[in-house]
Design brief:
By secondary structure, the protein is of the alpha+beta class. It contains 12 helices and 26 strands. The protein has helices spanning 44-57, 93-98, 121-140, 188-191, 199-215, 223-226, 233-242, 263-271, 274-283, 286-289, 297-309, 364-367, and strands spanning 8-15, 19-26, 29-36, 69-70, 80-83, 91-92, 100-104, 111-115, 143-144, 153-155, 162-164, 171-172, 311-313, 319-321, 326-329, 332-334, 341-347, 353-355, 361-363, 377-383, 391-395, 401-404, 410-413, 418-420, 426-428, 433-435. The strands form 7 sheets. Strands 15, 16, 17, 18, 22, 23, 25 and 26 form an 8-stranded antiparallel β-sheet that branches. Strands 1-2-3-5-4 form a 5-stranded antiparallel β-sheet, covered by helices on one side. Strands 19-20-21-24 form a 4-stranded antiparallel β-sheet. β7 (100-104) and β8 (111-115) form a beta hairpin. It is globular and about 80 Å long. The chain starts with 7 loop residues before the first strand and ends with a strand.
Length: 436
């Protein structure tokens, strides 16, 4: 290694376009070592220096499997770097999109097909929040990913936690080391060869990743693409570059999803609320030709934070967004399957209301206008331990709230304490209030 010591190769993890990733032992700890095939690299010395710079700068956040240590260069100039191993609890985004992965039993050598799906809708939307946030943090650090695609993520399907990988391609915005990109994810201007990867092209690729996560299909693959039985390089240039057309372009229906081929996109497009569909429509219509019209990372984050808030998990087993429930009035939703009704809580800093169901949560960013923390749970709807069926809100934050009780008086609710839900409930979080 560059600053001393040797890493012992234990086995191969996988290979890609730039080289091979190995499992190694270094200083008593197991790591992943990415070793490059420099014959495939345009400027290996500049590329290595960029990795060194990234190591010195440090990761934008803990959502990145960031380079940690460089190896010395060998006599022929080849090199590699160490990074943390992917935890076993994370699956590749590619496997999630395929809904399965192939695993080999180490004892028998037999290959097994294992299902890979999100545990619930909540985890999937949380993954969308985390992906948006990771790229917000990256771009705020003045860098761009340059080759954003479905191979760049590992996701925990139980929690929605995200790890961004292949971070060696990340470079200061405006710099480029000849990275081409993956068809279908590249911005149209890169496909056409009139631009190089930067933050603006990252924004387009991010929208594609998020679309595939939510709708399980390609935003540009509709009837027009299907008619090209064999996608040649020239047809890819047309469908993803010069003549790219969003499948739900409101002004041009010639590339709509085809039943029997794009059933997921057709199904999920009906399911998501209008503000989500509007964001993707802007990204893939105006944003196709005008990079300044692309949805920025913070806006995606806010959209998916709202979407997560609007999930209802009904006792009958139905889980969906409020857009798929019957709206009784401005403050109540009804399950179309079992008829159960859900009251809502309105926050003074939000334009939408949060449906209340057993287990629903709100976060620090919901109760503090100055907070961007969408991970720490501030409050949760729980059942009374003594009286079955009686629901209340538990304060899981670190601050004391003032809550209006049925006697009309406000009481201090300290962290760890709770209070019942009632018709005229009012909560003062300190700057932000919430009312039934």
């Amino acid at each position: 290694m560059e600053y001393g010591g040797k890493a012992k190769v234990l086995g191969v993890i996988g290979s890609g376009g730039q080289g091979t990733v190995y499992k190694v032992e270094f200083q008593g700890t197991n790591w992943a070592l990415k070793w490059y095939d420099i014959a495939k690299m345009k400027n290996p010395k500049e590329f290595r220096q960029n990795i060194q710079n990234n190591i010195s700068d440090g990761a934008p956040s803990n959502k990145f499997l960031w380079p940690k240590y460089l190896s010395k260069e060998t006599e022929d100039g080849t090199f590699g770097y160490l990074m943390d191993l992917k935890p076993d609890s994370f699956d590749s985004f590619v496997d999630i999109l395929n809904t399965y992965k192939i695993s080999v039993d180490p004892l028998t050598g037999q290959a097994q097909k294992k299902t890979v799906r999100f545990t619930n809708l909540y985890a999937m939307v949380t993954a969308a929040i985390n992906i948006s946030n990771a790229f917000r943090q990256l771009h705020r650090s003045g860098k761009s990913y340059q080759d954003l695609n479905d191979g760049g993520f590992f996701i925990n399907v139980d929690t929605g936690a995200v790890l961004v990988v292949d971070c060696d391609n990340i470079a200061p915005d405006g710099a480029n080391f000849g990275i081409g990109g993956k068809p279908g994810y590249m911005a149209p201007e890169i496909v056409r060869g009139v631009a190089k990867p930067d933050v603006q092209t990252d924004k387009y690729s991010l929208a594609v990743v998020l679309f595939k996560l939510l709708f399980r299909g390609d935003p540009m693959e509709g009837e027009k693409v299907v008619k090209d039985v064999c996608l040649t390089e020239s047809s890819e240039l047309k469908h993803y570059g010069s003549e790219a057309l969003f499948v739900y372009d409101p002004k041009d229906a010639s590339n709509r999803p085809v039943r029997g081929i794009h059933d997921n996109v057709i199904k999920f497009w009906r399911m998501y609320p209008k503000y989500v569909k509007d964001a993707f429509t802007i990204s893939f219509t105006d944003g196709l030709t005008d990079p300044s019209k692309r949805i920025i990372e913070n806006e995606w984050q806010q959209i998916f934070m709202r979407l997560r808030t609007e999930i209802i998990m009904c006792g009958c087993g139905r889980t969906n967004f409020t857009s798929m429930y019957q709206k009784v009035d401005d403050k109540t939703y009804r399950c179309p399957k079992c008829g159960m009704e859900f009251l809502t809580l309105g926050f003074s800093n939000k334009e939408f209301r949060m449906p209340l169901y057993l287990g629903c949560r709100f976060y620090e960013c919901d109760i503090d206008e100055n907070s961007d923390n969408f991970q720490n749970v501030a409050g949760e709807l729980v059942e009374n331990k003594v009286k079955a069926g009686m629901l209340g809100i538990k304060n899981t934050s670190e601050r004391t709230w003032r809550v209006k009780m049925p006697d009309g008086q406000f009481y201090q609710i300290e962290p760890g304490k709770g209070f019942p839900i009632w018709r005229w409930l009012e909560i003062d979080f300190g700057g932000v209030t919430a009312r039934m």
